[in-house]
Write a structure and sequence with these properties.
The chain is an alpha+beta fold and 349 residues long. The chain contains ten helices and 20 strands. The chain is flat, with a radius of gyration of 21 Å.
Amino acid sequence: MAATRKFLFGKRATTTKNIGVDLGTANVLINVQGEGIVVDEPAVVAVTDDEHKVVAVGNEAAAMVGRTPENIHAIRPLKGGVIADFDMAEAMLAHFIKKMNVKGFLTRPNIMICCPTDTTDVEQKALIQAAEKSGGGQVFLEKEPKAAAIGAGLDIFKPHGSMIIDIGGGSSDIAVLSLGGIVTSASLRKAGDTFNADIAAYVKQHDNLLIGERSAEQAKVEIGTVIKDHRNDELQVRGSDTVDGMPRTITLTSNDVEAAIHETMGEIIAAAKKVIAHTPPELVGDIIESGITLTGGGAQFDGIAELFATELRVPVTVAETPLDDVAVGTSKLLARKTAAPENEVESKE
């Protein structure tokens, strides 16, 4: 583990914290160097409609989704892995940074935030500004698949091809990496949230029932599969009848979830095939030998490694800690970037 940077003033040294942030559409994970993941909460902010005042963030705000009075609105500041509401994203980051109590009297924490590979310059600038206004010192951005690969334990700095597929909440990022850089990549703004919407749409179409995001998420997590008949679980789901508006309960099966998400999962697989097709032959040979690593919340789907291995014709494994890999990898990348000799004086200026 790289040492944190030290600022020396006479005989006093002030340690600057390195913070890796997985600013996800569904969840925010923050990894502090030397401490591990200290924040893992939903990326939700509850605000009042009249004054736009923040009343809750994270777990507390998520509990309000679908249950708020008319004057309070629970929102997600990020969509598709990028900032949709700058003010709320800034408020959310500031809340978590303050909660961690990592700001010192003379220092502000170094922050690295990961982002999808297709994030625009405007979106990148918004991410940096949000982090700076939230209390960050030096702020860096890194591509999400690179952070995910390092967090999953892949050595991407060797002259050897490594392939990662990170299926998060708002985006699915696919990349082939070598010598510390991304060789070929693709990013889809379709992932966990899309699966939830797919399930809700399926239930509406096939059962004439309106269900909320929380119910769709529960079905995805508890009974979901990506291969028909690979799993045979059931879940009672409650909602409102589309005809008369009355409450009704139905039974969803694993095959129902598979049918609902089949098209979106197929799009992710198609994107992975395109990335492989545009990868230099030498690196493709490396991938055939070492396989593909799946990470992110979507990597937890029942049967997903088997499905991807069949479709992509290479070995596929799921990372040991798929939910944590981006945050852990981001923190490790930041430690490399900010590493300095112990007695060297550095500052943001």
